[in-house]
Amino acid sequence: MHLDDNPAAVPDIRDARRRMYQRQILAAAEREFSASGFTDARMESIAAAAGVSLSTVYKTFSGKLAIWDTLHDERMRALLAEVDTVTRTAASPLERLLTGVAAVARFLTEHDEYLHLNLRAGFGWASGADGGRGVQRTVWSAGLDTLAGGVEASIAAGELPDIRPRVAAGMIVSALQVWLDDWVRTSRDRQADTVIEELTTRLRWLLAGDAP
User: Fold this and answer.
1) Can you list the alpha helix ranges (DSSP code H) found in 88-191?
2) I need a labelling partner for 140 at 20 to 30 A (CA). Which of 71, 131, 181, 189 fits?
C-alpha cells in the first residue's frame, strides 16, 4: 500500500505549518518579553521578529497572554524534566533539595532570555500566587510548594533544624533570585557553575548551619 492510499497516514501540512509558526512566535516573544517585559511587549514587534504577519500571530495564539502562558508552560515542563533527572540519585532529602535548586539555577543560566523575562517581573518569585502573571504565577506557587515539601522531608530526616517549611522555601527562592540578578547585573563576571556553587553552599550554611 502506498502512503497516498491511506489519507490518515499523510501528515497534515497545515498542522506542520502551525507548529512551525508556533515555534517561531514563541522564540520571538521570549526575546521581546526579555527586552521589554510583558506589559510593554507589542504583538507587532513579536510578529516582525518571528517573520510572520500579525494576522498569523493571532491565528496561532489568541493574544499576548496566551503566548506568555504557552512559553512558561513549555519552559516549566523542560525545567521539571531536568530537575527530575538530576535528583533521582540524591543520597538524602537535603541533597535532593539542594541538587534541585542547582538544576533550576543551571537551567535559567542556560536560557538567558527566559531568565531575563523572569527577572523583569521584579522581586516577587517568593510571593507565589501573589506574584507573576498567568501561568508564571502558577509556576512560582508550585515551585514554592515543592521546595516546602523538600524542606519538610529534610527536617523529618534530621538534616535540618525545625523551621517553617514555607518560610524556608521563600528563603531559598529569594536567594536564587538575588544570586542570579546579581550575576546578570555584574555582566556575568564569573562562570555560571561558580555562581551555582556559591548559591548552594550558602544555602546549605543558611538552612543546616554547615558553615566551616
Assistant:
1) 93-110, 112-119, 135-156, 165-185
2) 189
In words, the CATH class of domain 71-208 is: mainly alpha
- Interatomic CA distance for residues 180 and 187, integer angstroms: 11
Residue 4 in this model has a pLDDT that exceeds 80: no
With a CB cutoff of 8 Å and minimum separation 6, the contacts of 45 are 32, 36
Three-class secondary structure of residue 190 per DSSP: coil
Q: Where are the domains of the chain?
A: 1-61, 71-208
Exposure on the CB side of residue 175, measured as CA atoms within 13 A: 24
Q: How is residue 152 written as a grid cell?
A: 519538610
pLDDT digits (tens, 9 = 90+) for 48-101: 999 999 999 999 999 999 999 999 999 988 998 999 999 999 999 999 999 999
Residue 133 grid cell: 502573571
Length of the chain: 212
**Which tens digit of pLDDT belongs to each residue from 145-183?**
999 999 999 999 999 999 999 999 999 999 999 999 999
Residue 89 DSSP code:
T
* Amino acid at residue number 35: A
Considering the segment(s) 1-61 as one domain, its CATH architecture is Orthogonal Bundle (1.10)
Q: Does an H or E element contain 83, and which?
A: helix 64-87
CB 148 within 8 A of CB 160: no
pTM of the entire predicted model: 0.86
The rounded distance, in Å, linking the Cα atoms of 60 and 73 is: 16
Cα dihedral 171, 177, 178, 181, rounded to 10, equals 180
- Residue type for 50, please? A
